[in-house]
Specification:
globular; mainly alpha
Length: 161
Amino acid sequence: MRVRLVKYFEWRNCERAEELADTVFDRVIKKLSEGEEIKNINAYSATVAQFVFKEFSRSAEHFAENIDDEPHLQIASKSDEINEDDEKNEQRFKCLDKCLAEFSDENRRLIISYYDTDEKTMIAARKRLCDSMNISLNTLRIRVCRLKSKLENCTFDCCRN
């Protein structure tokens, strides 16, 4: 669950994804310790994560506004840290390419076409994909979920080595 939460925040370009995942855990644990019964812990955690993300984005916007108001403030970054991040990202992309190459052509096209849309056209694009494959939307989601899981595991193993 922690990996999912971290990825949720990373996909939303949060710089402090792990901290926010910990915040979600803290809030869920607090509710449990207060005696509240939670029937579906995964769904509840996902909802809490959405609220935590909204709070974070509001505070980030507020922070950005404060910096704009005071132009004498500057954010310093070390070039070594940037280079390390670039190298890590490059390694991740290489691993992703390697793992995608291990998929069959059909599965590779499926996962790429499923995620290769913007938010505005995502629903329509996925419906067209279902129509072209003569499958239901639920079947498409299940297939992509399984492929994504395999891809994540392969990429994680590759990056670890």
